[in-house]
Amino acid sequence: LQAVSLQDQGWETALHCATRSAGCESMETILTFLPESQRLHVVSVQDRHGRTALYQTAQDGFHETIQNVLK
Shortest CA distance to 15 belongs to which of 2, 25, 1, 30? Predict the structure, then answer.
C-alpha cells in the first residue's frame, strides 16, 4: 500500500501515471496486489490539481475499469 500511495513532485501516485501512460489495464494490475478494502483509498488520492486516478480513468472513458474498482 505504501509504495502505491507514494506521490511525486506533482503529488501523482503510480496509479495516476499508469492510467495516463499505459491505460487502465496497468491500473487494474496494480490494484490486484492490494486488498479490496484499500483499493478505494488508493484510487482516491489527489494530485496537486485535485484529480484522482479514478477521475482520470473516468475522463478517459474507461467506465468498465471504474466499475471493477468500485465493486
Answer: 30
Q: How far is Cα 65 from Cα 69, in angstroms, rounded to an integer?
A: 6
Let me know how long the chain is: 71
pLDDT at 1: 56
* Residue 34: alpha-carbon gap to chain centroid: 12
- Indicate the DSSP class of residue 10: T
Work out whether the CA dihedral 13, 16, 22, 24 comes out positive or negative.
Answer: positive
Query: What pLDDT score was predicted for residue 5?
Result: 74
Nearest to 44 by CA among 36, 52, 33, 34: 52
